[in-house]
Amino acid sequence: MAESSTLTGTIRDIVQRHGGMPTRLLQILRDIQDRLTWLSPETLEGVAEELGISPDKVHSVAEFYSFLYTAPRGRYDILFSDNITDRMLGNRELLHYLCNRLKVGVNETRADGLVTVGATSCTGMCDQGPAALVNGYTLTRLDESRLDRIANLVESRIPLTEWPREFFEVY
C-alpha cells in the first residue's frame, strides 16, 4: 500500500510541476521515467488519471517513443549507436561481444536486473565510434579491450562515478 501511495505522490508532484497540462505529457513521462527508471502500467494509468486524459493516449505516447521504457531496464542501461558509420566500425560485432560477456540478449534485461544492452539510432559520436551510451553517458572509441573493462565494472557493480574518466572523454 505504501508503495502505491509513493507512486501516486511521485506522479502528482511531477504532473503539478508541469502545471497539470496534458500538452506536457511527453515531458511528464520523461521526468517520471528519470525518477522511476521505467513506466509501469500502473504509472501510465496514474498519469492519465492525474491529467484527466484517456489511458489509451498515455499508453500510445509511451509506446511510440523509443526513449520511453514500458519494461524494466537494468541498473546499467547500455545502448550502442547503430548508425552507418558505427556499423562500418564494427558496432554490431561489439554489441554481440558485450552481450556474450554479460550473458544477456540484445535488447533484453538480464534476469538479475543488473544490465540491459541494446541499440539506439545515433549517439552523435560517429566521429569517435564505435560509440554507446551507458545510463545516458557517452562511451567512445569502443573495442573488445574496453568492453572487457566495462563488463568487469558492470559485473562488479561499480557506480559510473567510479569508472575511468577516459571512458567518457569526447574529443
SSE order and pairing:
Blueprint (H helix, E strand, L loop, with lengths): L1 H16 L7 H12 L4 H11 L3 H10 L11 E6 L2 H5 L2 H12 L5 E2 L5 E6 L11 E3 L2 E3 L4 H12 L16
Q: Mean pLDDT score, rounded?
A: 92
Unreliable sequence segments? none
CATH fold descriptor of the largest domain: Glutaredoxin
Main sheet attributes: strand count, strand direction, barrel closure = 5 strands, mixed
CATH class of the largest domain: Alpha Beta
Question: What is the count of structural domains?
Answer: 2
List the strand order in the largest sheet: 2-3-1-4-5
Considering DSSP H and I runs of 4 or more, what fraction of the residues is helical? 40-55%
What is the CATH superfamily of the largest domain? Glutaredoxin
DSSP strand (E) fraction? 5-15%
Order of helices and strands: HHHHEHHEEEEH
Task: Give the second-level CATH assignment, the architecture of the largest domain.
Answer: 3-Layer(aba) Sandwich
Overall morphology: elongated
| Helix/strand structural class | alpha+beta
Rounded to the nearest angstrom, the distance between the terminal CA atoms is: 49 Å
- Could you tell me the radius of gyration in angstroms? 18 Å
Number of strands: 5
Number of helices: 7
